[in-house]
Amino acid sequence: MEFLSMIEEAHVLACDTLARMFDDRKLMKSLQDAQYDMMLTDPAMGGGLLMAHYLKLPVVLNARWITSGEGHFAIAPSPLSYIPVPGSGFTDKMTFVQRVQNMLHYSIIVYQQRFMVGPSYDAICAKYFEGGCDIISLIQEADIWLMRSDFVFDFPRPTMPNVIYMGGFQCKPAQPLPPDLEEFVQSAGEHGVIVMSLGTLVNALPVDITDQIASVFAKLPQKVIWRHRGKRPSTLGNNTLLVDWMPQKDLLGHPQTRAFVAHGGTNGVQEAIYHGTPVLGIPLFFDQYDNLLRLQERGAAKILELAMFNGPSFQQALNQVLTHAPYRENMQRLSRLHRDQPIKPMDKALFWLEFVMRHKGASHLRTSANRMPWYSYHSVDVLLLLLAAGGGVLLSTGLLIRILWRTCRKNRNKTKQH
């Protein structure tokens, strides 16, 4: 609940900022006079959507998440029987108990949107838009979704024609390393190097954990490049280089790189796929476990949860990723699949951005399903009618048979009397 409360507070702050913008008449007039062609926004926060609605602009979403949960659940059929809710920790092959838990996870997202996130946006809609509006409806009415995912990474699922997949759009061929870093990498010889980074949000793990990590690294024949901004571990070995920043994409694409120790952020996972580098994942929060789970299911990564972390478990997991060939082979296969596209993800995204500007939107790609009442969408009214009609036919047939049987019985009795 603490995490949900943090999200709620973030949306409250976003709506406060948006309200101040709407109240600034000079600012709003300048935005209207600018006559923009399109709004490109991330729907994880709804401010861009409301601004686009105010300015009457076509909308393109740079998306994976919306105000509550993952974007597909707002626009595409999402059967909970085989589509895991983010945060559930499930794959697309769920047991009965897992399907029950998956449904409960989904109910939490619905509750979060309706009672924790939605009210802040409802207040903005009621105050600044005649007739009101609804943030989820605005999300569903977006012209194009540029989804930061693809089906090399994600589990197969239903989608919509206005969803364009651009997973790995930021990935590029590796560039030469700075001379000092290249010298360190080459000094590893045939053993190669290990790259470790926990992203930009976490500078360092607790000291006892970093000491255990450094101790394990010190025992390896490989060299290690570790993005670490905390206290220098007391067990650090001569084979480990601590850096404040690293050219991660270029290191992952270097032929000397043997493994990537990572937290499982979307960008890092997609860069590992692009360059074919196997991953040892240490998920910390949010979607990271689910991201790593998708790689683990494909045999390209191994997950080591922080709750189960210790020196021996880290050493065992790392040795497994380094020495078991299938990890690298499976990740190299994912890399080949990802790269085998007729259009690069970034070029695809640019085409659709220009498409929306040329045609003032892409309403022909939007489904009308989002405007249907739930009972029509699920054909509950049709099923009830058919059941009623079927029941009526059965009842009528039963009554007819009963009448005929009684008539025949009366005639038989009259015949016997004569």
UniProtKB/TrEMBL annotation:
Similarity annotation = Belongs to the UDP-glycosyltransferase family.
Top enzyme class, one word, equals: transferase
Q: Which reactions are catalysed by this chain?
A: glucuronate acceptor + UDP-alpha-D-glucuronate = acceptor beta-D-glucuronoside + UDP + H(+)
Per the record, its GO cellular-component terms are: membrane
Q: Where in or outside the cell is it found?
A: Membrane
- The domain of life for this entry's organism is Eukaryota
Q: Read off the CDD domains from this record.
A: GT1_Gtf-like
Enumerate the Gene3D superfamilies for this protein. Answer: Glycogen Phosphorylase B
Q: Does the keyword Transcription regulation apply?
A: no
Keyword field: Glycosyltransferase, Membrane, Transferase, Transmembrane, Transmembrane helix
Q: Which GO terms describe its molecular function?
A: glucuronosyltransferase activity
- Protein name (record): UDP-glucuronosyltransferase
For this protein, the parts annotated as crossing the membrane are 382-405
Bilayer topology: Single-pass membrane protein
Q: Does this entry carry the keyword Membrane?
A: yes
Instruction: List its EC numbers.
Output: 2.4.1.17
